[in-house]
Structures are given as structure tokens and as C-alpha cells.
Hints:
This protein is α+β, with helices and mostly antiparallel strands. 25% of the residues lie in helices and 39% in strands. The chain has helices spanning 17-24, 128-138, 144-166, 170-173; strands at residues 6-13, 37-43, 54-61, 64-76, 80-89, 95-109, 112-121. The longest helix has 23 residues, at 144-166.
Amino acid sequence: MPRTMSVSDSILIRVAPSAVYEELSDPTAMGRWSPENRGARILGERRGAHVGMVFEGRNKRGPFSWTTRCTVTAADPGERFAFRVHAIGVRRPRLPGAIALWEYRFEAVDGCTRVTETWTDNRRAWPDLLANAFDKVATRGHTFADFQRENIRTTLERLKAVLEQDGPGAADRTEQGPGHG
């Protein structure tokens, strides 16, 4: 069966696009929304989202933990933030390879922001049969597309809940429990 190579979902959040961008373009904060990510460490001296920024993301799914190396490919305030995942490993991302692309788009809509999150499977060199078999083991029976579709919905709903309840920057002031990783 051919793989679905990209999935996305959108949500409306009652804050300005620049405020949503500010939250989502900080890789160290992603753990507050994502069901898998547990935060990140930015490499290099320069802070603030910029094209070429490299970070290592810490992730956990069930009993499994891993680290990825990512590079920001778009950092357009209030419009778009994107990065590619290009290395993976248990404690350090030592195995290089095309893994995934993540993108967030922000669009002003009637006093709200439509946030669209997109995941693209970048493992194009993998045969579909091998990728589907790996995916079902790694996700407990799902394809990565179906699995990421659920993760994206969870991430967007958590982001909306925090930003609408407490406003931008609230995640820095509010303790988030486990599962906001």
C-alpha cells in the first residue's frame, strides 16, 4: 500500500498570528504542546528563530526515548515556521538521514489565527513495504501518517487551550504536567 507522505490539520486560536508564531517558533517550548516532544536544546550562540538554526529535540513515545537533530528552514514572523529533521539517535542524533519536515503556517482570520501544522515524511528512499512495516512497530499498529495526524490534532488543541486561556507567554508562567511534551 502506498504511503501517505504528508498530513496536516488546522485550528483557530483567538490570538494574533505574531503571538502564535512567537510560541511555536521556539523549539525549546514545543514540549509544552506536543504529545511526544519533551523540549529541545538550541545549538550555537544565536537565539531566536532563524533559517539555519540547529536544535536537538528530545522525544518520548511510550517506553522509547530518542533525540533528533533539526534545522530551521523557514522563520517568517507571524506567517511561517518550518524545520527538517535530519538525524536521530538514542541519546545523541548520530544517525544522519532524511526523516521528516514540519511546518506551521499562521493566517489572520476574523480576529483569530488559523494555525496549520503539517508533517511530511521525508523518508522517500525507503520502499513503502519497509516503511509501513517499520511504522506499525514504531507506532503500535498505525502508519506514521495516521499517527502524526493524531499528534498534530493534540498539539493544536493544547496550544489553543493554553493561549486562549492565559494568553501568549502563559506557558512560561504555568506549570504543564506530563504529556505536554
